[in-house]
Amino acid sequence: MLMERAIIHINVADFAVAVERVLDRRLDGRPVIIAPQGAARATVYDMSEEAFQAGVRKQMPLGRALRRCRDAKVLPPRSHRYAQAMDRMLRSALPSSPLIEPGDRDGHLFVDVTGSSRLLGPPVDVAWRLGRRILEDLNLTPIWSLATSKLVAKTASRLVKPLGEYIVDPGDEAAFLAPLPLFLLPGIERGDLARLNDFNISRVFQANQLTADQMQALFGDRGHFIRDRLQGIDPSPVRPVGQSPPRVVQIKEFGNDTNDRFRMERCLYRLVEAAGRKLRQQALAARRIGMVIEHTDGVRRIRQTAAKPATADDFALFSHARRVLDLAWTRRTRLRRITLICDRLIDPPAQRPLFVAERRRAEKQNHLMASIDRIRHRFGTDALVVGRTLAA
C-alpha cells in the first residue's frame, strides 16, 4: 500500500517587496513597485499588495503602473538580495527534508515530508514549525499549505494570499478544487481558459462535467492532462536539493558549415518547433531562451534572453530565439552547430491579457497552436509545416 504524500508549499507573497521591506521598514504599509528605473521600456518586476489592489500587475509597463498607483515608491530590482534570501529560506527548510524544490528567487519552496512523521511529527506540525523558523531567521512571514501534491498545495496557497495557511486532507482534493475558478490551477494555460470560456465554463466543477471524449475533442492529447489537473491528480515529484532543474535542449549540427542567414533561421525555427512541442506535452513554459553557437574555427558564443511572460508558443519562442541568435552571431565565420536551450520552466501563466484586443489576439494564437498540435499528432510531424522551414 502506497503511503499518502505530504507536500508543504511555502510562499512569501510579493517576495522582492518583502525582502526590501525587511531592509527598509519605512516601506511598510505603502505601495511599492520593483522595476528598472530609467529604462525606456521598463516593466514591473514585482509589486506590493497595496499596488496590486490599485491595479498594478507584473510585466505591466512602468508608466502605466504609475498612472494607476501614483503614490507608489519605485525601487530597482536587486537580484542578489533575493537570491541571498532564497538561500537562507532553503537552509531554514533543510532540517525538515532532503526533498526541497525552491523557486527562482521568488519566495516559493516545495517540501516533501512524506514518511517523516515518526522522526519529525505530523506534517502539519512540520509546516507550522517551518513557517515559524523562516519568520525568526529572515523576518519574513510566509504563507504555507499542506496537501498530497504540488498542484493542490500551490492552489491552496493562492487562496490564502497574502497571509494565511491551508490544509487539504487526503481524499478531499477533488472537492477542494471543484468550486474554484479555473485560472487558479497551475498548468491550465490561457489557451485552455479561452477554449473553455467559449462554452461558458469558468469553474472546475463545470469543466469536470465534460466527458473524456469531449476533453479529447477540445484539447487533443492535453485532454487527459487537464482532466487529471481538475481532479487534483499530480504525481510530479519534489526534486532533491541540488538537482538540476529541467530544461529542453535541441541541437542542430550542419553537414556543411554555413553562414547563410536564411538557412540558419529556417533551421532555428525547426528547433523551436521541436522545443515548443516538448514544452506543451509537459504542460510547461520557458522563462528563458538560451543559445550556444559553435563556429568552424572552434569559437563558441553563449547568449540568452528572458521570456516575459513565460511561453511555450512556437511563434513567441522563435521571436526570442531569433533575438538571441542576433546577440550571439557577431562574426562572419561559418557555423558548425547551434544549440537551443529553453529553461527556467514553470507552469504556463494563466492570467488573461487585460485589454480586449490583446485577449483576442492571444486566444487566436493559442487556438492556432492547439490546432497545429492536434493535426501533427494525428497525421505526423510533417503533415503541417511552416513555410520558412521548407528548405531547412
From TrEMBL:
Q: Which GO terms describe its biological process?
A: DNA repair; error-prone translesion synthesis; SOS response
Q: Which GO terms describe its molecular function?
A: damaged DNA binding; DNA-directed DNA polymerase activity
Q: Which residues form the signal peptide?
A: none
Which PROSITE patterns does this entry report, sorted A to Z? Answer: UMUC (PS50173)
What Pfam families does this protein map onto? IMS, IMS_C
UniProt feature coiled coil, ranges: none
**All residue ranges annotated as the UmuC domain in the record:** 7-189
According to the lineage, what is the superkingdom?
Bacteria
InterPro entries, per database record: DNA/RNA_pol_sf, DNA_pol_Y-fam_lit_finger_sf, DNA_pol_Y-fam_little_finger, DNA_polymerase-Y, Rev_trsase/Diguanyl_cyclase, UmuC
Among the entry's GO cellular component annotations, what is one? cytosol
Please state which protein family the record places this protein in. Belongs to the DNA polymerase type-Y family.
Q: What name does the UniProt record give this protein?
A: DNA polymerase IV
Organism lineage string: Bacteria, Pseudomonadati, Thermodesulfobacteriota, Desulfobacteria, Desulfobacterales
Q: What's the gene?
A: dinB
